[in-house]
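Example 600.
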Amino acid sequence: MSLASVHHRVRRLPSLRFSYRPCTSTKLTKWSLLPTPTSTIRRWSSTSDPSKPYYITTPIFYPNAKPHIGHLYTLVLGDVLARYRRLVEPQREVKFLVGTDEHGLKIQQAAAKSGKTREDGAVDVQGFCDELSEVFKNLSKSANISYTTFARTTQDRHLVAVEHVWRTLNEKGFIYKGEYEGWYSVTDECFYTTPQVTETTDGTHISKETGSTVEWSKEYNYMFRLSAFRDALVHHYSSNKDVTTVFPSQYNSVVLGMLSPASTDEPGLVDISISRPRSRLTWGITVPEDPEHTVYVWFDALLIYLSGVGYPWSGAGAQAGWPADMQIIGKDILRFHAIYLPAILLALSGPKYSELVATPPSKVLEAASIGLPKRLLTHAHWTVSQAKMSKSVGNVVDPIHSMETYGVDIVRYYLARVGGRFRDDVDWSFEQLENHSKQLQSLLGNYLLRVASARITASAAVGRDQLQDGGEAFLHSLNEELFQAATKLPGKVQSSMEALEVADALVEVLDVLKLANKAVTDIAPWSKACDPRVVYETRQTALLTLRVAGVCLKPFVPETSERLLEALGLSEAEKTWESVLALDGSERKKEREVKAVRLF
Ligand code: MSP
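Predicted structure in complex with 5'-O-[(L-methionyl)-sulphamoyl]adenosine:
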């Protein structure tokens, strides 16, 4: 399907398909205050300090071009985890940082290319950043991203933090001046060593890791003693923990590989250049006390995670939310987050360089007063027809247009459902999006319309009256099965989410909805032959299932969930995680005024 044809598509509502199979197999079992399946109920128990805000970050985006679907994906993952955390730990503050990475050669060049100038005729880089940063902010707002901070590297408070870190590292002996020779990629804003580069058939040199063009550069730069932290970082990523710091664990192995020497005579980790001569790069933060140098953009950008929560702190970092509990990144920026940032943090708050050599790796980690981020959720990329998205190929998927065409929640759902496994690249396809969308509309939207229909409501009322004289039996085994599955669902979803298996959490919900739809189709409560008492218990079990599904889906499709929970006539207290974790049989007896509304 071409992108053009998709652009002209409008959202269609699914048609209702009722099945009129009569209600059979009425079987009497106990419809009672069934025991709650406690084995699956895991109340939230956090070993971490609940008074420390839970802090989530996404990468800050380069505002050099309009956002694409990969950016929205990262935002949605962050938002799903932020909303989930608020749901399961409502007493705890959740901080969620997103933003834009506005310095560096890439932005400087893009601004010059845009032709945006100030009144004096100079390139208006700040104006260029302001406009594009706003586009990213609007994308976040349109997609219902519940960020608490939209941080920009051109903000004054960030400048203060970068200067503070630079000065501290310099005083502690971690910065020195040296002649730097190597390859530089403007696209990646990254230096590469010769073994990291390869020559293509046309003589161009490219990075082996990203495929971006690199050029040779020889500069007098400030260097950071990254190599001094090799052993401490190896210790950090290989020490025995229940869960790997970098998730999925395959990327933890990638990091350990980056820290290991490629051959016995290689160091494994070399010092990095953290400045560029002003003659080459003007758009950035000036190196403190040296106006001839500009701070390297990654050194600058990584510190946003600190400055975004108020670093330098006057009190304890924990009050501000540090360390980050969850950082979401793409696989292409693993090195910066898993190696550069932790090394900067260790340098900033651990022993000074002269003492570091004599300090054992585990002690280096223990001595650092600014903790390292707890988890790095690393994801693979979205491709289009198995190819990388690129402006020149013209296959870039526009997130705004996708949401306008299909609806915000449908796009969020698709990104989390298909992109929620992280391990391998996944292919974006509008056809696939439509299939997932139809499935959700049918399993959830049509299901609500079916069970809340006037006919079933009327028949259920008759059944309820008949059951009033002590009718405590489960009349249909499918309802019993569904009840069991629905009450166990929150526990299962929680297990998957705590394990960061985001797609699995959605599959758990879908499986219960499939069972629910099967039950209602098989029982056919709309049929005249169906005993009104069965109609009643079918409807009540369905409403309970919808309530549980609605709460479980809150992090993923927040607007749709809210519409559903409203339609079910639930109070705020009945929409909480706590309330669905421990549902029992009494819940099925509650009378509610339900509205048959369209969810999509
Ligand atoms: N500015 C840096 C990050 C600095 S964080 C201190 C940067 N920006 S970016 O705009 O190029 O990329 C931001 C994020 O989008 C990265 O995590 C990257 O992996 C992700 N994606 C870029 N293309 C993507 C896909 N095609 N698919 C999924 N995510 C993608 O890097």
